[in-house]
Amino acid sequence: MFDQAFIENPYPTYHALREGGAAHFFPEFLGGAWLLPRHAEIGPLLRDPRLSAARSQCYSALLPAEVHADFAEFDRLFSMWMLFLDAPEHTLLRKLLNKGFAPQLMEMWRDAIEHTVNDLLERFPLEGSVEFMGSFAHPIPIAVICELMGVNKEDQAQFIDWSDDIARFFGNPASSLDNAFRGRDSLLAMIRYFEAVIETRRAAPGNDLVSLLIRIEEDEEALSGEQVAAQCSMLLFGGHETTRNLIGTGLLALLQHPDQLQALRDDPSLIPNAVREILRYDSPVQYLTRIAATDFEYAGAQIRRGQMVVPLIASANRDAERYPDPDRFDVHRADTTHFSFGHGAHVCIGTRLALMEAEIALHALLQRFDTLELVDSTPDWMSNFGFRGLNTLMLNAHSTVAPARAQPAIIV
Known about the structure:
Blueprint: H1 4-8, H2 11-20, E1 24-26, E2 33-36, H3 39-45, E3 51-52, H4 58-61, H5 72-78, H6 89-98, H7 103-108, H8 110-121, E4 127-131, H9 132-137, H10 139-149, H11 156-170, H12 177-203, H13 209-215, H14 225-256, H15 258-266, H16 271-281, E5 290-292, E6 296-298, E7 301-303, E8 308-311, H17 313-316, H18 351-368, E9 371-374, E10 380-381, E11 390-392, E12 394-398
Parallel strand pairs: 2-8
Antiparallel strand pairs: 1-2, 3-5, 4-12, 5-8, 6-7, 9-12, 10-11
């Protein structure tokens, strides 16, 4: 199932899984897992208390037994990520982190995001070929999250490398040993980096997210330095991987559907709806994982305690039982709800920020370039089953007017 043909286009396989039943057991996936492809079952499943999010060690558990000890520290720190916690620990941590992602605070970052986008566009040639992922889709989210956290811009390239290493380990059901060790080393390096940042912020607090996480309290509870560092690594990883893939696959979908691209040029107010349709049509995250905390029956499956349960959210997003003509990409679609940012208690905490980044990026691109065309009609997909995104995206671009340089935003 999980071969290069699937990576290039997983949707025929998802269609066959939906047609074949509500639940399928795959012994080769994550050591044995129930895959659920239909929309109707996934929403209730992601709210089901019989499933646990505490599955961080399932990735290293698939490695040869002789290296398990080498991943003990990785497993300990990885398990601190909020997305691997259950209530009540998850509930408290979510309350604390929500303060850093409150709607009014996110809106304060709009000018900074616009400035970042325009600054990157000024480096584009007015006419000619450009590699879009490396020059635009990659730098936007990493620059924004670094600005939000108040860390050095000079370290952005290192953050991208660390994030990509973690994604190759985290996003594949059976990772190679080389990818596993690279992912381990990158997570440890990222957390140690943030531990040093935290020490600096304790001595000289700022208005950045790291400083906020250090000083916020809820019911007289606060985060330890290691907990803050773990959440910072999670936020940087999640903010970079999903948002860059959203921007990249979003532009690809528009270029593959020129009538939809023209619709956005004619009416830019459609861009927010278009971003949601992009998320439904080609989700940056293809599946979620949970672990059964008890034996139970669901969707005709006899699920046993300790088994992995995998909601195929990208499949659910194209379920004909939920969406009319689901394989059609339509920026006018009335129902653009989706599972791409998760659902229930673990819905992505950075959803608002990711949507804002993608909307601003698409709007600026369409303003800047009169013509955008694919150089190669065959997309260059990353070899990753869980995180769907492009390695490269070569474009031919033409602009008659360069945008005015944005003034640096003042963040308060």
